[in-house]
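REVIEWER CHECKLIST
Item 1: Sequence provided? yes
Item 2: Single chain? yes
Item 3: Sequence as submitted:
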Amino acid sequence: MPRISTLTAALTAVVLTVLPASLPVLAQADPGQYAPTMLILDASGSMERPDQGGTMMDSAKRAVRSFVASAPAESSVGLTTYGTGTSNSEADKAAGCRDVQVLAQPTTIDKPALTAAVDGIHARGWTPMGTALRQAADALPDAGPRSIVLVSDGDDTCSPPDPCEVAKELKQQGVDLIVHSIGFAVDDKARAQLTCMAQATGGTYSDAADGAALERILPRVSSAALRDYQATGTPITGTDTIGTAPVAGPGQYLDTLGQRQKRYYAVDVPEGATVYFTGIVSFPRGRSTSTTNDMNALDLRLFGRESMECGNRERELETRSSDGTTLTIAKAFDGAAEPLFESDKCTGAGRYTFELTWDLVSEGSSDRLPVEILVGIEPGVTDPGPGASTTKTAFTEPTSPTQTVSGSGSFTTAATLPGGGSYTDTVQSGEYVFYRVRLDWGQGLAYRVGFAETGGANRIAASNVTTTLYSPLGTEIDSDTSAYTGRSSAELRLASVPIRYANRGEYDVREQSVAGWYYLAVKIGVPTGADAMPPTPVQLDITVAGAAEPGPTYLGASAQPAAEQPVAVSSPATVARPWAWYVLIGAGVALVVGIGVAILVVGRRRG
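Item 4: Structure as written out by the authors:
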């Protein structure tokens, strides 16, 4: 499928000099960086069993403290517990099965208060997991991605309500909620119940055999829960007919897309400009129960004047969508810059309309899903700069010390990698984790992803591991995939060519024709018919090669500014705002061309 990227953020400085003061600049959306997350901690009487010189409750508290200490300051984390108010005697069962307390609401994390709440928990009562799950879900926001992380040392002793049935009910109601469960030294019965709760919502189950294992696993699972996919943008409502489509300027928008529904969006294209349109849908984990009908596809068509279809339909198709795949589809239209078709309905400046369709639907999918719409408008150039390059960047072993990073669940919140080097993270089964690397004009990227040996799932099964490289506007450049069991390591590699404007004239590298943030996604699939993989250490070794070159000179720009500098990993304020927003509004007839430029930044959560 043809893939073309959009205008680089290197033009940011031009905006300040040529954009008329009276022309409003599209404001950046303010995405939520992390998915609000509620921890549910078992404080039943059985948590007083001995562990590591203390009790299991002592070990659980240490694990929660470790997570709280490492949680991002911008995250929203709450705490619910059960079993603290009554004993676990039969005489107290009725009261004990109502004994659920929300100790901290899932608002911006208050680390001292949350730590104090954890320290004050005393284990003594029953195990009303189903009731706790409902109350935790009620405490979370009513809309948007959110997560629950539940730690229990046994099965529910208060059913009804059965916690697995509660999880299924929440998902059937359309709640965009994922439950991750951790079994703390549990038996087979409790393991089956906790696994069912996680699988019903597309979450993961993890075994912690003892307190030491829980201290390793709980911070990792909780951090993963915070990075569910975050769909963000300015609200827009596509229509079901071409003539009524809303007109979208350059920017990022958020709509919903129904099964096999056509949605139309219009863009006014100035003379000599190129328009870019991208649709992005993240498919929830764990929806499909079929091995033959777990497939989704997005279709994209472009229409000119009088509903004339301009060019071929674009299609992006993905199997194993229940792995939490993020699917992007993009189209670039040069018809206002040069004649592409004999018909004058598809040539020159004017209003063009894009049709987006969720055409193939995976079994068990929601009726509607969020869709991010990205629109970019790029003027013509007077000088394209250096010629095209089709030679891929060579990988070199990094020599700098390894840094620990925490990837994010979406383009919007992708973790920033400050150039070449070695980085480590931990990825769960079913996660689709995003990182970003800045490439200036003339620079190229090569990278290697290593998946460590973990011992594999409890039952022998192969999963799939994948890495995908995306352009600044979310168009897929390339991907690599392999089978993975955890019983041995796996390795994936990808590379770009040097980024040059002239690359758009070469079919194989046309999407690598703009400087800006490039996105690396890493996915570990969920094994079919087996337990989830253990948390998997992942290492990203990055090469950024080539000296920065002069970029193109755009119409109306007297000089091409240098690209913006990379953002350090240690700066959480910038990690939350990853994508460059590309805004160029050209208006000109005869002798005058007015150009406006603004940044399009797409900033974190699920897949």
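Item 5: Key structural point noted by reviewer: The chain has nine helices and 31 strands.
Item 6: Recommendation: ____
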